[in-house]
Amino acid sequence: MKRIKQPAGKYQFNVSVALEGRLSEDWNERENAFNEKYLQEIEGVVERRLEKNVKRFHWGITE
Description:
Layout: E1 2-5, E2 11-14, H1 36-59
Antiparallel strand pairs: 1-2
């Protein structure tokens, strides 16, 4: 952090921060988006839905 005194006794602070982490957006407030078991469960759901949709598209099924 760098502090600079400005005219009229005011101070200016320049703050630089470097962070490492994960960004997550989770609309389900009852679950923890950083829990590995929860992530694996969601990945499985998405994989099954995608596979089902691709098969339906391939066979021309419309419902």
